[in-house]
Amino acid sequence: MLIVAFESSCDETGVALVDASGSHVPRLLAHALYSQIDMHQAYGGVVPELASRDHIRRVVPLTREVMAQAQKSLTDVDVVAYTRGPGLAGALLVGAGAACALAAALGKPVMGVHHLEGHLLSPFLSADPPEFPFVALLVSGGHTQLMQVDSVGCYELLGESIDDAAGEAFDKSAKLMGLPYPGGPQLSKLAEQGDANAFKLPRPLLRSSNLDFSFAGLKTAVLTQTKKIGAELDMRKADLAASAQAAIVEVLVKKSMSAMSQTGLRRLVVAGGVGANALLRSELNSACGKRNIRVHYPELHLCTDNGAMIALAAGMRSQAGLQDLQESYTFDVLPRWSLQAANL
Ligand code: KG4
Ligand code: ZN
């Protein structure tokens, strides 16, 4: 069964084709991605209207590219999937519209997929795929969540950020330091040359007994430090970046380990853009190593938004018999959609 999928929830247009025949993990046949980062950089963040317009420009050429790469024709496609939410409404509508138009033209069913489910399952495309059940640390630009994942479609929220997400903490701290958008990768690169102990920054909720996160205070602390050091910022930027990164990573690692103890599970899966962070990976590897816990990550290029994870999630849901295939081509999108609401 061939599934083509469109991802357009934010500032990346992704198209992918998977083969979800049988019961093995769907096989990625081809995927293509266009990142709008350069366009949004001039504005210091994503401009939703520009994002939507650019998705419109990219979606057809990317689809052609994917079909050519896989040496398949659109008439071979059995199901058309798209990201239904969460994300920017106008941007989501582009993928949903393209998917429904293509499905209608082909006379094939469509499937709306939850973006976070795509992230969550993305490590199944890696060379070292996980097995259920596991704890998932989902760290994207808009979400920081710890979840118990028993099977496809069975997601129990253990804790989440009560304010900013970890990715937001990276991006906002980076912006305060004058780094270009998106700040996460820039801040982490700069941090390599800095001293993580140079600034004492807060580790919010580190010692609380629950698995919730709070990163808004960290951003305020970074702001306070930038004001305090004033003209010295340029000289001390790497130290501040390293200190901010260390604070975020320490909280993520500590809470993940608490989730492992609380659930008694032996596998941890990390997903979402911040999962690309090298310090987070090395600290999690060492914390998990000490506790004999297996930790799984998506391939680095599949940590941030892409179509492959949406095609994969569509394939895994349909293999699990979870998804009603929609035969009507009217569509809506769900810009604020909780993953628990998508459970079955
Ligand atoms: O999952 P994602 O691509 O988009 C959302 O669904 O939100 O995550 C994007 C987030 C951004 O906040 C970006 O700064 C962050 O992931 N990010 C990183 C790194 N690469 C991406 N943060 C820290 N270190 C990185 N290497
Ligand atoms: Zn994402």
What does this structure look like?
- The protein has 344 residues and is of the alpha/beta class.
- The chain has two domains: 2-121 and 303-319, Nucleotidyltransferase, domain 5, CATH 3.30.420; 131-297, Nucleotidyltransferase, domain 5 (2-Layer Sandwich), CATH 3.30.420.
- It is built from ten helices and ten strands.
- The strands form two sheets. A five-stranded mixed beta sheet has the order 3-2-1-4-5, sandwiched between helices.
- Helix 4 (115-121) packs across helix 10 (307-319) and helix 5 packs antiparallel against helix 8 (233-263).
- It starts with a strand and ends in a 25-residue tail after the last helix.
- The model has no long low-confidence stretch (mean pLDDT 96).
- The site of 5'-O-[(R)-(carboxyoxy)(hydroxy)phosphoryl]adenosine has 20 residues, from helix 5 and helix 6.
Question: How would you summarize this macromolecular structure in one to three sentences?
Answer:
The chain has 344 residues and is an alpha/beta fold. The chain is 42% helix and 19% strand.
Radius of gyration using CA atoms only: 20 Å
Number of helices: 10
Distinct bound molecules = 5'-O-[(R)-(carboxyoxy)(hydroxy)phosphoryl]adenosine, zinc ion
How do the helices and strands follow one another from N- to C-terminus?
EEEHHEHEHEEEHHHHEHEH
Q: Would you tell me which CATH topology of the largest domain applies?
A: Nucleotidyltransferase, domain 5
Categorize the overall geometry.
Answer: globular
Instruction: Give the CATH level 1 class of the largest domain.
Output: Alpha Beta
* Total discrete domains: 2
According to DSSP, the number of beta strands is 10
Distance between the termini: 22 Å
Structural class of the secondary structure composition? alpha/beta
CATH architecture of the largest domain: 2-Layer Sandwich
Overall mean pLDDT stands at: 96
**Which consecutive residue ranges, at least 5 long each, have pLDDT under 50?**
none
Q: CATH superfamily of the largest domain, please?
A: ATPase, nucleotide binding domain
